[in-house]
Structures are given as C-alpha cells and as structure tokens.
Amino acid sequence: MKFAKQLETESEEIPSEWRPYLIQYKALKKLITKVAEEIESRGLSTSLLHEVLDEEAAEDDDCVPRIRYYFTGEPPNVKPNIEFTYDSEEPKVQKVLSKLMSLQSTQEIERPKLEFRKSVNNTDFFSLSSAPLSPPLSVVSEDQVITSPGIRTQRKNSTVTLVKELLNLTLEERDRVKDTEPIVQEIQPQKHLKTLVIELEQDDEFFKMLLEELNQAALLQDVTSQKFKHDISDLESRMTKVASPTQKSDMYNWRQIFSLYMDAQIFQGHAESDREFRTVERARQQMEWFIEQLEKSNILTKLKTPESKSAFKQFIALNTELITMKHYQMLNQTAMRKILKKHDKRSGLTASQSFPEIVSTNHLFSPELAHMLYSTITNKLTTIIPQPEDYACPVCMSVAWRPIRLSCNHVFCVRCLIKAQKKGMNSCPLCRHPTAVRTATALNLDEGLQNFLKMYFPQEIKDKKRDNEREQAIEDVQAMTGKKYTEEQLMRMNQPSDSKCTIM
Ligand SMILES: [Zn+2]
Ligand SMILES: [Zn+2]
C-alpha cells in the first residue's frame, strides 16, 4: 500500500497530461489477486510453487523433474507458462502415474480441472482456464496415453494431482542432489523425458495489461523525446545567432552561463568515479545550484538582446523538462519492479527474474533516454561557444596568443616558445618530441587558429597582448641596464601607471 500512496503523491510532480501514462499500479494489483485465486482454485498451491520455483537450483538444467516459469512470444504478445519436465520411466514418477490410473473412476475428482489443450511431440499443453475450451484443433502427435476418450478424461482430471506430485518430487530430488553434491554425476541412463505445460489465463491477463501500459509509456516517451530533440535543434540555431562573435557581449555572457552549467554537473559528474547518471533528486539539487549561481552573477539582466533572454529561458526550461522526464521514467520503472515483486509474492511465480529482460530487449523501457537527451544538450548547445581552457597554452595556461604549432602538433603561444628556446629546450614538454621546440620558427604560426581565437576570445587576447608587451618592456629594461630586478620591482613596473615613461 505504501508504494501506491507514494506513486500517487509523486505523480503530482509530473505534468498532468503524462499521468495517464503511468503504470496503473492499483488495477494491476487487483489482477494479481485474481492470478493467485486462479492458481489456488485450480488446485495448485501458490506456496508450493513459490518453494519450488524460487530457488537457484531451479536453474539447474540437469535436475529432473524440473519446473520452469517462462514467457513465450514477443511483446506485446507474451504468454506466461509453467512447464514441468519429468522422466516418465523414473520409478517414482511411474508410481505416481500408476496411482493416478487406479484412481480413475472410483474417485472421479470433483476438484477443479486443468483443461487439456494439445500435445506436441513429447509436450502436453494444459490451460488453467475455468471455461471449457473448444477441443484442440491441431494435435500434431497425440500421446499414446491420451488417445482414447476415456483415458483422456481421466488424464485431465488427474493432471492437477500429477502436477502436485511433480512439485513434491522436484523438491525431493533437489534435496537429494544437494546432499550428494560432491560426487561427480555418473553418466545418466537414457531418460524418457516428457514435458507438461500449463498456460495461465489470469496471469496472461495481468501481463497483457502490464505490457499495454508499458507500450503506452513507450509511445509517450517517443513523442516526448522527438519533441525534445526538435526543441534542442531549434534552440541550437537560435543560440548560434545570439551567442555569435558579432554579439560580443552576449557571447561572453553565454560563455559564462555554459561554464556554470558544466560546473553544475546536473545530470552526470565529470569525474570518472562519478559518471553514473544522477538520481532525480540529485539532478534537482544540482539544477537549483545552477540557478542560484546564475542569479548571483546577475546574468539574466546582463544579457543584451531579447532573443538572448528568450533563448536563455528555453535553455532552463529544457533542462527542467529533462528532469521531469527522468522522474516519470523512474516512477514507471519502480512501479514495474514493485508490481512484479508483488505478483511473485502472491502467485508463487517468478516474473521479476524473466519479465524485465523481455521488455528491455524490446525497448519498451529505455533507461538511456534521459541520458541520450542530455548528451544532445551538451553536444549541441554547450559547444556553440568555445571555452578558453580548451585553447590554453600549456605553459602559461591562458589563451595562446600567436599560436605556434610545433611539428608534433602541440600548440604554444609564441612568447612561451621563445622563452623555452632561450633556455635551450629542444623537446616538446608535452610529448617529448626530441626537436619540436628547437626547430619551431615564425613559420609555425597557425594562422587559422589565430583568426579563430581573435574572433572568439577578443577580451582574453587583448589582456594577453598587454601582458606580453609589459613583459617584453621589462626584459628590454633589464637588457639595457644589465640589472636584475626583484620580484617586487617587477610587480611595480607591471602596474599600469599614469605617468609617462620615465626610463629615458
Ligand atoms: Zn603560453
Ligand atoms: Zn608535442
């Protein structure tokens, strides 16, 4: 009950038009009651099923008799089945079978029956249906035992008993195998394996409904993500304009917004240890932090054009929408997990293990969706504006003014290169290419990169140029006077001063 309540409360946080696409937890819960009732009313015990199915040993294929709960078909048409495989020649099974034969007419079992459907090869199909089914249409190879109508009636009446005996035998056999585990199994005599399959009608209904809901959810996700992608493309082209180098001041504002956005790590951390996609709660916290930082830096009022302001609003809205989408998905995923757990607990069956696999391979649930949309944001939007750290000279760590591309392809600013050459350096400090520094000349200037930097980092380059000039001037003074200045004196010289040059 707790989860049903939680689902109700949390659904308030997602848009009302999405709410009908949440898994109908309560309705499914009602169906589970029917599933359990059906199993019990057909004379099978849910607790016995639970005991036999819910064991790791159930996966041991060599163990006979064995029981399996599985799904056939492809979504949205999957059918749950219970399957028994047993050795019809095995003495214990023989005993059960002959006991059943002798029961025949004397104890015409008035208990509920399993409806015989058909036999294919060595497999008999039964249904848990309460309504009598029409006689089997295509019987591929009828089993000897069930050819005569009398025996057929007897057989279908006693199948419940057979199934129960098989359940008990399965448990016994498993205990025996467990006790004798260390002994390597001898080569088994040829087994006369037979299979008995029971189709579960109410269980079928339950999964039909669940699949239908998942299908609806998948449709909503498709539509929403298409729209989302469209919105991002739209925003991309708007941002390319509002943050272009011709809008110099807004370009800087946008750079600051994206830099804060990347720092906020809303959906995913940058560190290797923090790559996991954030929970909804954490994403919300990070988003709040982002908004706070934006407010602190007063960015919205700094944005110059109305187009910029509106693009900014859409950028925030898309991120918020992504968190909501993630929340919706998470609610559905939790609802599915919980309802399957409940199903298994009440029915004794084991859908929690096999069902999620079926839906995940069919993309009904795509946990990657939010992740994918987030990478669209980072790839398309945040890359519109280059960040200075991506173009920093590895020596002075500022934007590489007059970028020199060494023969090893690493880029340094010309000042840093000249300094390195003066110190007699030969090799590239980044890759240790032996002659890259020594052989670099003015011809290595990367003009394309220089133009690009000029366009996107006019402010940084202005600062860098001024610094370079000062540094150069100090060096000239030192060269002229032959004096070495102290750090403090250099700092003072570095201060912009009102007075004219006093060296002369
Ligand atoms: Zn540099
Ligand atoms: Zn290099």
Automatic annotation (TrEMBL):
Keywords: Metal-binding, Zinc, Zinc-finger. Residues 1-357 form the SPX domain. The keyword Iron-sulfur does not apply. Pfam families: SPX, zf-C3HC4. Signal peptide: none annotated. SUPFAM superfamilies: RING/U-box (SSF57850). Residues 393-432 form the RING-type domain. The keyword Zinc applies. This is SPX domain-containing protein.
